[in-house]
Specification:
CATH class of the largest domain: Alpha Beta
Organism: Emticicia agri
Shape: globular
CATH superfamily of the largest domain: Glycosidases
Keywords: Hydrolase, Signal
Signal peptide: 1-20
Radius of gyration: 32 Å
Largest sheet: 8 strands, parallel, barrel
Strand order of the largest sheet: 1-2-3-23-25-26-27-28
Helix content: 10-25%
Strand content: 25-35%
Protein name: Glycoside hydrolase
InterPro entries: Galactose-bd-like_sf (IPR008979)
């Protein structure tokens, strides 16, 4: 027996060592699959065969793993005489050449699923296949008569709602666009009593001027008035005076869309009422721009009835988002600038109604995006405002082809609702005109498959055997096609998925209350859930299924950063092979990393949280969302569109931001962007930025940075993520990580988390108290959203999990959010919830045992973990008050490892505890692929190590080799400076770039501080040389050359031997082997960014400019930046 045990032990030890060797080997020499990828934009039809080959060869020698090809209308910097337009024979031939080159070079090829970057649309999409919205017309008729006439035709215009034309954004509407209208249902119902009230107000403005009422009351979103923009100290208002006291129960406001994003037009304000026109009382607040830049400035508000003779809508200063317009880039690279407050704005509709409407029905019916619907419940109203569904009559079969209706009207006042659909007018983009067409219906699988066939067939024909071989992926970029709330199949799909007929409730889509306020809100909840189901099943999953049948996989930003489409975001991301998120180079919508980048966590600490319109918080939510999707659905790769919106930043600028998002779960960077370079002119062709292509200054010095990313990504793709908390997003649609508010149960320091959705919730099992998924993920607790609603199937799943030993944290549900099973289901939910939550009330008693598990309510997670005995996964000392270490933990069969990032521009000497025992820690550095031992102690299940971290440094701490030794020491080497080399350098510049051939530097300074204007403005590579004296090093010592501050990349040579490329701090290199006693020739080639030359050229007349173009991107002309070898340069001896 002992011999057998000894053999088993030795075998397990051998296998452990093999696994350890594999992980180490992959880290030193990562596989192709770990390499980053680039977005590769073909811009404005400026494409050349030669440029394609040069671009791809540069990617190959730089270490890039592949590219994702786009054809877009935007871009600037290089123009060719002969344009090559999308999908023409010439274009397809170049696409074939691209595939052949990718195959030759071993690059993974991806193509986006439409011209532009969003989404699935093109000129071949027929109107019947395009995105649709509900439209309607109403006719009031009196009963007791025979009706035989044409019904008013609903709006047929392409646009987001009613008769509002498509506008704003890419692919706006034109007079040539085809339209489509089709009838769906003709419904007659008794007109609610409150809707029969007719009152004509006199309208004046804040100056006392009379306003003609027609434009504001005509139910026409195209007729408008102008009103001056309010100032911070000067609100403006419109006043409605009625001849008799008027009772208002709802209010509709429509402002004219201005600028690229329509929601920027919605202004904050308030509604006021008065009996005498002098003393006004505020009874409702208008919140202004909200949640998303793509929302419509059209809203209806319901409130408890208010009576008065005078009503005001008061507008306050402050639009929601400070972005005005997007146009074609100019020579200075301008693209999206800051807003200039307009002097006036348009108002299309201001209506106080006596009849209540569904509160915010435009959003609830998905004419526009919104979150947090539960905060906009419709107030209960009397029967006078509601349609009685039992008296509704379906007249659809009586409508004739010419739109006439013959009907014997029963007694009473009736409304005939002619309900149909027209097109939203959404188009793919930004694409050239010949490649721009309607977006395909996102809710109809048949239309999606038709689109994919027509789009992919020319590609498959052109590529032949390279289709599915060289071309390996389709990319679905971020969803920017706006809202859709109808498709021909939606009623049938609704019946199949929700189990009841929606027809009697369809008037809620036009704002009517059916039955009562709660029933109407519940139906619209079910309706949004159905749309979300159709989006994932009939669009994203169908697209992936189509691709798989052709031997191709899918990437997807589905739906994308701060895209509050009606979706289950995690399901969407789980439907593609490689889910993608997005992070930017900046914190706002503008450009330029001119100020230090701040992490989302720091913004919160600084009380600088920008709310729903703060893009950095949106990036945080999007990245955590996509990372969670990757973990819970078992996706090895979690990708991200990376560093969007920057300029010509250097690798060191990109590293820290990239490292941060690595700690949040991203394990494949996709550079945004490497625009196609049809020519060799400098500074190259650009598309938005950050610019990463073969014509940037540091193109040939990029590989060490790319290798660093690759090593990081290799480890972050291996194994599985380790987290303790599963945060359930709930059932409300949109189900997405909330970027517009903080999490109710804040994540305590030292623990990590994922988000889960209902689909994943139903896959949970319980093992030893852990919540376990088929993907391998395990969690200690499941946190519920702070909502009092839950469907019965979800509650039953929660009950089963708790019975089996799970720990659940969250409030006790009271009722269902939808109409399925209503009203009986609410009693069932309340009874079952009372059983599970038991004595816990969230006020005085915070937990209850049920079965083998527990539920907590209003208890902090830190306290819960204390009760459960779950120690922090990571805990560290705080040498400074602002010390912050970000981290992520991954685990393989035999190893645990942590990626750690010093978030500060300061050195940190910390003691750090890891929730690991019985394994030896090692320090792995991705920049060089080196590993080294660490001193450690193991005590009570915790391993403690001490780390010295340079400013913004990142490292891996890897636990692999098992040990029974609880302590190990590592001797630190002593360090002393033996030579200061900061004086007397010769600096040589290349010809024809505006700088003198040579300058002598008594002391090292930034080029921007030099007296010579050519040196100040230089961009590119210049060489520093100096003869230095080196003494023979002592035995067992080494010589380290420390360059101090470098802007931006240094290639170091000693005695003619190229030693290394240094691209980040600390700029240090071991010169022991290359140095010789006595005189040595030191050469350091420094490369900076294009910014200095671009900034200088912007001030020069055209004939004096050195560059071929002015760059490009979101931020316009960049500022000159510190450049060169700044030092101090010293030689350090280690022994």
């Amino acid at each position: 027996m002992m011999k057998r045990l000894r053999i088993i032990f030795l075998l397990s030890l051998t296998l452990s060592q093999l696994f350890a060797q594999d992980l180490r080997k992959g880290f030193v020499n990562p596989p192709h699959s770990a390499k980053p990828v680039v977005w590769w934009h073909w811009t404005g039809s400026n494409i050349t065969r030669e440029g394609i080959t040069k671009d791809l060869e540069w990617m190959k020698r730089t270490g890039i793993g592949g590219f994702q090809a786009f054809d877009v209308s935007l871009g600037s910097g290089q123009t060719v005489e002969k344009k090559v337009k999308y999908m023409t024979p010439e274009w397809l031939e170049l696409f074939r050449h691209t595939a052949a080159e990718a195959d030759r070079l071993g690059l993974d090829m991806t193509v986006v699923t439409a011209a532009g970057w969003s989404e699935t649309g093109g000129v071949w999409v027929k109107p019947q296949e395009a995105m649709k919205k509900v439209v309607w017309s109403e006719l009031q008729v009196k009963g007791g008569t025979s009706f035989n006439a044409a019904l008013p035709l609903p709006p047929t215009v392409n646009g987001p709602i009613r008769n509002l034309p498509k506008g704003g954004g890419f692919g706006g509407g034109t007079a040539k666009d085809k339209t489509l209208y089709a009838d769906q249902f003709i419904l007659a119902f008794k007109t609610p009593e409150a809707a029969l009230v007719s009152a004509k107000p006199t309208i004046t403005n804040h100056k006392g001027e009379t306003i003609a009422p027609e434009a504001l009351l005509d139910d026409d979103l195209t007729s408008k008035i102008k009103i001056e923009t309010p100032k911070p100290d000067q609100p403006i208002y419109l006043q409605y005076e009625y001849a008799q006291p008027f009772t208002a129960r709802s209010f509709s406001l429509a402002l004219g869309s201005a600028g690229f994003f329509p929601s920027t037009s919605m202004r904050p304000g308030m509604l006021q009422v008065s009996d005498d026109g002098k003393n006004f009382k505020t009874f409702h607040i208008i919140s202004g721009a909200q949640h998303d830049i793509r929302a419509l400035p059209i809203r209806t508000f319901s409130f408890p009835e208010v009576t008065g003779k005078f009503f005001r809508v008061v507008f306050l200063s402050g639009p929601g988002v400070t972005v005005t317009t997007v146009g074609g880039p100019d020579d200075t690279g301008g693209f999206m600038g800051p807003a200039t407050p307009p002097k006036s704005f348009d108002i299309a509709e201001v209506i106080f109604r006596s009849v209540a409407r569904v509160n915010r029905w435009e959003d609830k019916a998905n004419f526009a995006p919104m979150f947090a619907f539960d905060t906009f419940q419709t107030p209960e109203t009397g029967a006078s405002s509601a349609i009685n569904p039992n008296e509704m009559i379906d007249l659809t079969s009586k409508l004739k082809i010419d739109g006439t209706l013959e009907w014997q009207v029963p007694a009473g006042n009736w409304t005939i609702l002619r309900l149909g659909y027209s097109l939203t007018g959404a188009k793919n983009g930004p694409a050239i005109g010949d490649a721009t067409g309607l977006e395909v219906d996102k809710l109809n699988k048949e239309h999606l498959l038709s689109y994919m066939s027509q789009w992919s067939n020319p590609l498959a024909t052109a590529l032949g055997n390279l289709y599915g071989k060289s071309l390996k992926y389709f990319l679905v970029d971020s969803y920017e096609a706006d809202a859709q709330n109808w498709s021909e199949n939606i009623v049938t799909e609704f019946k199949n998925r929700r189990g009841y007929d929606p027809i009697r409730y369809l008037p809620t889509l036009s704002g009517y209350i059916v039955d009562n306020a709660e029933v109407s809100d519940r139906f619209l909840w079910d309706y949004r859930l159905t749309i979300a189901d159709l989006l994932v099943d009939n669009h994203y999953a169908a697209l992936t299924e189509f691709a798989h049948k052709q031997g191709i996989k899918t990437y997807g930003e589905v739906g994308g950063i701060s895209m509050p489409i009606i979706q289950d975001a995690l399901r969407n991301k789980g439907a593609v092979d490689i889910p993608m998120g997005e992070f930017g180079m900046t914190q706002g919508l503008g450009s330029g990393a001119e100020k230090d980048w701040t992490s989302p966590a720091d913004l919160e600490n600084q009380k600088a949280y920008g709310g729903a319109n703060d893009r950095l918080n949106a990036h945080q939510a999007d990245v955590r969302e996509v990372a969670s999707a990757g973990h819970i659905y078992g996706k090895k790769v979690v990708a991200a569109e990376s560093w969007t919106g920057g300029g010509y930043e250097a690798p060191a600028d990109l590293k820290f931001i990239g490292d941060y998002w690595s700690t949040q779960g991203i394990n494949q960077f996709i550079f945004h962007t490497s625009a196609h370079q049809p020519l060799d002119t400098k500074p190259g062709n650009t598309m938005v930025g950050t610019h990463f292509h073969r014509n940037i200054t540091w193109a040939e010095q990029a590989k060490p940075f790319v290798d660093y990313i690759t090593r990081n990504q290799y480890l972050l793709q291996e194994g599985r993520f380790v987290a303790d908390i599963a945060y359930y997003l709930g059932e409300d649609i949109p189900a997405a990580v909330p970027y517009w508010e903080k999490l109710r149960y804040e994540i305590p320091n030292g623990y990590d988390y994922d988000f889960v959705n209902t689909e994943i919730l139903n896959r949970f099992t319980v093992e030893n108290g852990d919540l376990v998924l088929p993907s391998g993920m395990r969690y200690k607790v499941l946190v519920l959203p702070e909502k009092m609603t839950m469907t019965l199937p979800v509650l039953e799943k929660i009950e089963a999990l708790v019975k089996e030993g799970a720990t659940i944290v969250g409030p006790k549900p009271e009722k269902s959010p939808g109409l399925v099973g209503y009203p009986a289901v609410d009693n069932t939910i309340a009874m079952k919830a009372n059983e599970i939550w038991g004595v816990a009330d969230g006020k005085f008693i915070y937990q209850n045992r049920y079965g083998k598990g527990r539920v907590f309510w209003n208890a902090p997670l830190m306290g819960i973990f204390g009760q459960m005995g779950i120690k922090k996964d990571v805990e560290y000392t705080l040498p400074h008050t602002n010390t912050r270490i970000n981290w992520i933990h991954r685990q393989t069969a035999d190893a645990d490892y942590y990626f750690l990032l010093n978030m500060r521009k300061q050195t940190e000497d910390i003691s750090i505890n890891f929730r690991i025992t019985g394994k030896v820690p090692e320090l792995w550095r991705a920049d060089k692929g080196t590993t080294e031992p660490l001193a450690y102690t193991i005590d009570n299940g915790i391993t403690t190590v001490k780390l010295h971290l340079n400013p913004q440094e990142s490292v891996f701490v890897v636990f692999q080799q098992t040990t029974t030794q609880n302590q190990k020491a590592v001797v630190d080497k002593s360090v002393d400076i033996v030579n200061n080399l900061s004086a007397n350098w010769t600096l040589n510049f290349p010809e024809k770039w505006g700088a003198p051939k040579q300058v002598v530097l008594p002391q090292l300074i930034s080029w921007t501080d030099h007296v010579d204007a050519g040196v100040q403005s230089f961009s590119g590579t210049a060489k520093y040389t100096k003869t230095i004296e080196i003494k023979k090093p002592a035995p067992n010592s080494s010589l380290i050359l420390d360059l101090g501050t470098v802007k931006d990349i240094a290639v170091v040579s000693l005695n003619g031997i190229v030693l290394d490329t240094l691209w980040k701090a600390p700029y240090q290199i071991d010169i022991t082997k290359a140095a010789k006693p006595g005189k040595n020739t030191l050469a350091i080639s420094i490369t900076n960014q294009w910014s200095n030359r671009i900034a200088a050229d912007a001030r020069l007349p055209k004939e004096s400019k050195i560059l071929a173009s002015g760059g490009g991107g979101l931020g316009g002309t960049p500022k000159a930046k510190e450049s060169g070898l700044i030092g101090p340069v010293v030689i350090i001896r280690k022994r």
